[in-house]
From TrEMBL:
Entry keyword Hydrolase: yes
EC number(s) on file: 3.2.1.4
Keywords: Glycosidase, Hydrolase
Stretches assigned to the Glycoside hydrolase family domain: 136-342
Pfam families: Cellulase
One MF term in the entry's GO annotations: cellulase activity
Organism lineage: Eukaryota, Fungi, Dikarya, Ascomycota, Pezizomycotina
EC class of the enzyme, as a word: hydrolase
InterPro entries reported in the protein's UniProt record: GH, Glyco_hydro_5, Glyco_hydro_5_CS
Protein name per Swiss-Prot or TrEMBL: cellulase
Protein family according to the UniProt entry: Belongs to the glycosyl hydrolase 5 (cellulase A) family.
GO biological process: glucan catabolic process
Organism expressing this protein natively: Podospora australis
Length: 408
């Protein structure tokens, strides 16, 4: 991740045969775009559409600068709400709130376009023009496969495609949404389509139909972008092969992508119930991911772990190192984003603290007492040490990683 010679920093290299490191994408989730809609009384419509920059935002540009320029991460997962992109008065589908979309696109463009090569007179123009290093962004509809009421996420709102609920958006509407979003980003090869955050408590057959419909409409738009698909049951890696006939391992490998640029989107927390709520880390990642890893290997699939985290305890630092090492040592895993940074967390913590206010992974954040935040106590000493020096900085984001290089 660190390199001091400007010219050499742009020299690309393919992954050597037999190399153990297969992480092509590494970074952090950007969580604030889903803020401002919570209601303690579950009042539908709270915070919708919301005031950009007051109730919610997507990224801090200065935070992105630090993550990319100092820590050399090449991946950000940017959360948003379907109800803001597709207001309730429109319904889920291909009609967007254009003002909201432009705010979102501005953030995605900052990550994937503005954060390019650092221009230097010491770097030959031919190298700069050939392959400026650019970060990738995962588009993250943070809706739990629900639409119409985010006031008490993750449980409020109608399950998309639930034909027994007359207020629910349809499978076709979900497909139309993804077809439109894909059309708008298909010319940006650094954009990754994350189909949905943490679907849960719906039949796996319905989830499969929703995911395949989204895949079909994305590819029908002409987009060749990398797509990452969740599973049911919160997309938990530890539960991937469990649940009998409803298990993700019985369904997700059956998805068909004509571009063969599809990976699996996994979440895996380390606390007692895998929720990411608790301070103590007690769940061994290597043991809990073994079933998923075997399934990935069997079906020749690749995976991202786009949510995982821990508190600032010694045990959590050990287990976070463990899950990061596990991914780098198993070629089935090609990317990760830690949970979470974001400009609106303030002293609050996105996970793993029993609601203690230890701050977030956002650069410059502080705990409620003014002390070091999780950025200082976990991101810097743990995560930054595991960011590979070689990452995919140029070209289309793919499951194969492409050409890997170092960023100056």
């Amino acid at each position: 991740m660190r390199f001091s010679t400007p010219v050499a920093a742009y020299a690309a290299t393919a992954l050597l045969p037999g190399a153990s490191a297969t992480i092509y994408y590494a970074g952090v989730a950007q969580s604030s775009g889903e803020f401002g809609a919570w209601s303690p009384t579950q009042t539908k419509g709270t915070g919708l559409p919301g005031r950009f920059g007051v109730d919610y935002s997507f990224i801090s540009q200065s935070g992105i600068d630090i993550m990319v320029d100092q820590h050399k991460v090449n991946l950000h997962r940017v959360a948003f709400l379907l109800e803001r992109m597709c207001p309730l008065s429109y319904g889920l589908g291909a009609r967007f709130n254009e003002t909201h979309f432009e705010y979102f696109k501005e953030s995605i463009d900052y990550i994937t376009k503005t954060k390019g090569a650092c221009k230097s007179s010491f770097i030959p123009t031919s190298l700069l023009n050939r392959a400026d290093p650019l970060a990738d962004a995962i588009l993250d509809p943070h809706n739990y496969m629900r639409y119409n009421d985010p006031s008490s996420q993750p449980f409020s709102g109608s399950v998309i495609g639930n034909i027994s609920d007359p207020t629910a958006a349809t499978v076709a509407q979900f497909g139309a949404f993804w077809g439109e979003l894909a059309t708008r980003f298909r010319d940006n090869e650094k954009v990754i389509f994350g189909l949905m955050n943490e679907p849960h408590d719906l039949p796996s057959a319905l989830l499969f139909e929703l995911l395949q419909t989204a895949l079909d409409t994305i590819r029908a738009s002409g987009a060749k972008n990398l797509i990452i698909t969740p599973g049911n049951s919160w997309s938990g890696g530890h539960y991937w092969t469990k649940g009998g006939s409803e298990a993700n391992s019985n369904w997700i490998h059956k998805l068909v992508d004509p571009e063969q640029n599809l990976a699996v989107d996994v979440h895996e927390y380390l606390d007692e119930d895998f929720s990411g709520s608790h301070l103590a880390c007690t769940q061994d990642p290597a043991t809990n991911l073994a079933g998923l890893t075997g399934w990935l290997k069997e079906h020749k699939l690749k995976a991202f772990i786009t949510e995982f985290g821990g508190s600032n305890t010694t045990a959590c630092a050990t287990m976070l190192n463990g899950i990061l090492d596990y991914m780098s040592q198993n070629e089935e895993y090609i990317g990760w984003t830690a949970w979470a940074a974001g400009p609106f967390w303030g002293p609050n913590s996105p996970c793993c603290t029993d609601q203690r206010q230890y701050g977030s992974l956002e650069p410059g954040s502080k705990a409620a007492d003014g002390g070091p935040s999780l950025y200082d106590t976990i991101w810097i000493p743990v995560f930054t040490k595991k960011i590979p020096k070689l990452l995919q900085w140029s070209g289309l984001a793919t499951v194969k990683g492409g050409v890997l290089s170092e960023r100056a």
